[in-house]
Design brief:
Layout: E1 4-7, E2 10-13, E3 19-20, H1 23-37, H2 46-60, H3 65-74, H4 76-87, H5 98-119, E4 123-128, H6 134-149, E5 156-162, H7 165-173, E6 175-177, H8 186-192, E7 193-195, E8 203-206, H9 208-213, E9 214-218, E10 231-236, H10 245-257, E11 259-267, E12 280-284, E13 287-290
Parallel strand pairs: 4-5, 4-10, 5-9, 10-11
Antiparallel strand pairs: 1-2, 2-3, 6-8, 7-8, 11-13, 12-13
């Protein structure tokens, strides 16, 4: 095992020359991430942060974590997305937590489409923290099928947002390896994916019809939200798990303000709103409905 040699805040691992995250730099990063991303990093996350940010140092040609911290001080917005992407775990898949999609398909969408068609209103769903696009495209499959099934001439769209530029690039590309389609039924694979050939063998591309339904935009949930209209449902799954309690409370309050009367908020399987908001009622497994005014 190599020894660690420290000179003030410049830390390297003897025998490797690789930088190690010093106390002052870790404190700065922890405060920065909490302020700009709402992510609370405990002392136990220090090695994880060090390991993941080493890749950013290499990509940027930086030799020390101090230089990286200085970059964040000078121009925080330029690196914020890459930093958040590096320290968070983007695990996603098509039709993850399938009971949410079942509720949409069997109950909510038929009701909404009937109502929207009668009132001439629009239908909007927000995938907040869309990662590489599996969630919004799965939502688009269910929505497209519902529009066909119920013959609804309704202005329907899905907004997909994320802070990570790499994740958004993947979502916009809409190309996935075949082994990533495990949650998609054989019928939906045939209907909603274009199978690659030749050099694209083993890949599948999202059908253009689904692309029409999904609008992909960068967004930091802690910053200003430019959307002017309200949403019928918001999917924010496996996102708030990273946030501290005050950030969760503020976020749930803001979500309530962006939902229509009795709109729905979907959280991840390990997330809960218990003790964090009086604006919602639990109506299903990690499914919450906005309380009437």
């Amino acid at each position: 095992m190599s020894a660690t040699v420290t000179f003030d805040n410049q830390v390297t691992v003897a025998g490797t020359g690789g930088p190690v995250l010093g106390d002052a730099d870790f404190r700065f990063l922890r405060d920065f991430v909490l302020q700009h991303c709402g992510i609370a990093l405990s002392d136990q996350k220090r090695q994880l942060v060090q390991g993941r940010l080493l890749r950013r140092l290499r990509a940027l040609g930086l030799k020390e974590f101090g230089s990286y911290c200085e970059l964040l001080r000078r121009d925080p917005d330029s690196e914020l997305g890459d930093l958040a992407s590096a320290i968070s775990t983007n695990v996603t898949s098509f039709f993850r937590e399938s009971h949410h999609y079942d509720l949409l398909e069997q109950t909510l969408l038929p009701q909404w489409l009937q109502q929207k068609r009668r009132q001439g209103d629009r239908l909007r769903i927000w995938s907040a923290g869309c990662s590489t696009g599996e969630e919004p495209y799965a939502l688009a499959m269910v929505l497209a099928e519902a529009l066909e099934r119920h013959g609804a001439d309704v202005d329907a769209k899905i907004l997909a947002t994320d802070l990570s530029p790499q994740a958004l690039a993947g979502a916009r590309e809409g190309v996935y390896s075949i082994d990533k389609l495990g949650g998609v039924s054989a019928e939906r694979r045939r209907r909603w994916f274009l199978r690659g050939e030749g050099s694209y063998e083993g890949l599948a591309c999202i059908h253009p019809r689904l692309r029409e339904l999904v609008v992909i935009q960068p967004l930091n949930l802690l910053h200003e939200w430019p959307m002017s209209g309200l949403f019928d449902a918001i999917f924010c799954r496996n996102v708030v798990i990273y946030f501290d309690k005050p950030t969760k409370e503020r976020l749930f309050r803001r979500y309530a303000g962006k939902l229509v009367a009795e709109g729905y908020l979907f959280l991840g399987h390990s997330e809960s709103m218990h003790g964090l908001s009086d604006d919602f009622d639990l109506v299903g497994r990690t499914v919450y409905r906005k309380r009437p005014a």
